[in-house]
Structure formats: C-alpha cells, structure tokens
Amino acid sequence: AAAALAISATAALAEGETVGFSQIGSESGWRAAETTLTKTQAEERGLKLQFSDAQQKQENQIAAIRSFIAQGVDAILLAPVVATGWDAVLQEAKEAEIPVVLLDRQVDSSDDLYLTAVGSNLVHEGEVAGKWLVDSVGDKECRVVELQGTTGSSPAIDRKKGFENALAGHDNLKIVRSQTGDFTRAQGKEVMESFLQAENGGKDICALYAHNDDMAVGAIQAIKEAGLKPGTDILVVSIDGVPDLFQAMANGEANATVELTPNMAGPAFDALAAYWKDGTQPAKFLQTESKLYTQADDPAGEYERRKGLGY
Ligand code: GYE
Prior knowledge:
Elements: H1 2-15, E1 18-23, H2 29-44, E2 48-53, H3 58-71, E3 75-78, H4 87-95, E4 100-103, E5 116-120, H5 122-137, E6 142-148, H6 154-167, E7 173-180, H7 185-198, E8 207-210, H8 213-225, E9 235-240, H9 243-250, E10 256-259, H10 265-278, E11 285-288, E12 291-294, H11 299-306
Parallel strand pairs: 1-2, 1-3, 3-4, 4-5, 5-11, 6-7, 6-8, 8-9, 9-10
Antiparallel strand pairs: 10-12
Helix pairs in contact: 5-6, 7-8, 9-11
The chain binds beta-D-fucofuranose.
Beta-D-fucofuranose binds next to α2 and β9.
C-alpha cells in the first residue's frame, strides 16, 4: 500500500500543467534565445511544453492554437507575428477557458481575449534609438535609412513611430529610405544593398536605423562590401542587444543598441502559476526593460556575458 501511495504521489507531482507555445519562427538570434529560455524554464518548473514553430506564417500560428485547444492544454503562449486577425481564435481559446499569454508582440484584439502580454514598450525603444542618433549627430545634415521589421507586426509599427517621435523637430535628420527586412540578416543585407546603390554608393547615407540587430548585422556586411566603414562612414543603431551586435560594436562597426530581454517566459509562467493557483488576474501588460548600450559600455564584455544565454 505504501509503495502504491508513493507512486501516486510522484505521479501527482509529475502531472504539471501543459502549455502550448505558438512561436513565430527563428527569424533572428533574439527569437532563438527566447525559444531556448522558454523551453528551459518550462522544464525547470515541471511544465509540459508543446512547441510549434510557425515559420513566420500567421495561418500556422492559428492552426497551432486550434490544436492546443483541441488537446485541452492548460495555457497558451503566443508570440503574434502580426497585430491583426486574432479575434476569432482568441475567442475560441476564451470559450475553452484556456488562458492566453502574449509574448514580445501585441495584438489589436481587445485585452479580455488574453490573460496578459509580456513585452517591452516598443514605441519607447524607437524613441531611445532615435534620441541616441539626434544627440550623436547634433545639427549636421544626416540622411537616414531605415530597415523595418516584419510588415504589420507591432514592433515594426511602434519602433518606426518611436524613432520618428525622437526625430521630430530636428529637420537636419531625414529618413530618406525605409523598407522591411523582415527582421532577418539575409533581408537586412539585401535591402541595405539597394539603399547603398540608390544613395550614391552609400556616400549620401549618414546613418542606418534597423528595427532589430539581425538586420543591422546583415546591413553591416553590405556596407563593408560597398567599401565603406560601418560605425564611422555610416552610423548603425538598432534594437535587441544580441551578442553579435555587441561583437560588431566592439569592432567599431556598430554604434548603439537598445536591449530587449529574451526572457519573456519568466514573467509569463509566474503569472500563469498565480492564475492556476487561485484565479489571480495579472496586469494586462507586464513591461520589460529597454536599456541603451553604446561603444562606451564595454561591448566586448557584454558580448561575453550574453553569448551563452541561449542565443
Ligand atoms: O526585436 C526581433 C524578432 O518581436 C520584439 O521579433 C520582437 C522582435 C525582435 O524578430 O529580433
């Protein structure tokens, strides 16, 4: 009888909740780190994680959420690739009484359709990046090119807005070209090549603002292949704080980045634990930090500190 009791107790402990995670894909080093940290923390907390990689397609995310609902998971994590088109499937999760937690991006659905959203203030990130450039350039004429994130995603919309807020009133800084690089290195390089060609081989470009570090790293490659010096001929400012950007900064090839923690799962799992325990309703937005790093902030040391963190 004692042995049976021990087994059932263990079974109860091992039971743990099941969480479905609809991840966008692995378009950037930052996203790969977010996935790694989510899997590690689920394991540490005794949660069973059903992971789905949507290859950056919304229809795949919606299908994954529907399969999680059919499985009767205890919660759903969703990093929404774009901001629109979620009402129906979020309503289905609500009717199934499955709490949904948004990670790192926002949706335009009403906030009664999700338990909480964990992420940074994306407009503020753009403002921090823009302010750094305004302060660095002073009253010099500066033609700026912009690599936007995934079209229709909340970071692409908000980081553009924030950067423009910071440049308002400083007419010597002008965004002369702006196009999506879909948050990837490859497309960041490709689009930057077209910007360089269109701007007198890059000689007319004073600065690049990239909505994430991966596009900046791709663009840095293109700037070097055009025979120019990234970080001096063309200033480079971006967002995420991934190790490779700190590496570029240590080499003088990038100037500034706004850090985005890849650990969105920690606050998400904490909120879910409280909700599962006694129905505690968290705030609808759990905001993470946005810290500016420049070449003055020991980039080589920051590279060392980050390179093991799941990137
Ligand atoms: O900046 C980028 C990833 O959603 C804020 O998505 C996140 C962004 C991040 O592709 O690297």
